[in-house]
Amino acid sequence: MLTQIKGLHHVTSLASDARMNNAFFTNVLGLRRVKKTVNFDAPDVYHLYYGDETGTPGTVMTYFPFPHAARGRQGVGEVGRTVFSIPTGAARMWVDRLSTFEVANISTSNKFGETRVLFDGPDGDGFALVESDDNRTPWTGAGVSEEMGIRGFHSTDMRLKNAGASAELLQFMGYERQDTDGNVTRFIVPGGNDANTIDLEELPDAPFATQGAGSVHHIAFAVENRARQLEVREALLDTGYQVTPVIDRDYFYAIYFRTPGGVLFEVATNEPGFDRDEDTAHLGEALKLPSQHEHLRAKLEGYLAPLED
Asked: Which part of the chain is the VOC domain (predicted)?
């Protein structure tokens, strides 16, 4: 069993419009845009990162907004809902705030004894806010007060036809089975960061998901550094998983592999962080390009649509 993985690092999804995506996360949810860069493989597409003040691992939601991308179809083999942590007692305030912005499909529920606010993002993305005793310091942007501010990730909900093999994988990765609520089984990594929870929802009769705008592309798990990452990679290879070589993503190093249930997993380092090329006070303001795309700067700055007025 691995001990290097400490919980979620980031969640990356697909969107259809960069400006709409940026407005939703910064103006509605009150997160900070901590990096404005481009997709390594498609530099004419933004890669946007939202999180707390510094983009602490376990707080960062990232997006590839492909212009006019078709909406994904929900189903199994995907992360169906990304869940953020909010303070105990803040759910009612969030229902009111989301209603003011006419956010789609707002509802409340209770799972594992936790109060949840469910809602959809601009592309039908599934989100929830969960009340929890979370002491992380929120970013308080766009009029979101500290008493209701998002603390970071709480968990992700994976939808699977059969959860057995994915449960075994999570346990190999250091997660422990904590509880079951209906067809959902909860796993928590002990001694991890505050984004330490994964829920597996078993839906044997559901169709397979099709990725598109509103779909989660992958979820990333946090390790402290490159040495711990290489240990994880070697262990996964020894277990039979097809794992990519280490890839430098400028703000972290990444490896990727596909899970038995079809979800793409990444293991990302906490180093070097989002302040490696920008002062903390100005994170997310300038367009930052990977070195291999710097020669395209003039072209990309003319092509990529402004995110704000």
From this structure: 7-132, 152-270
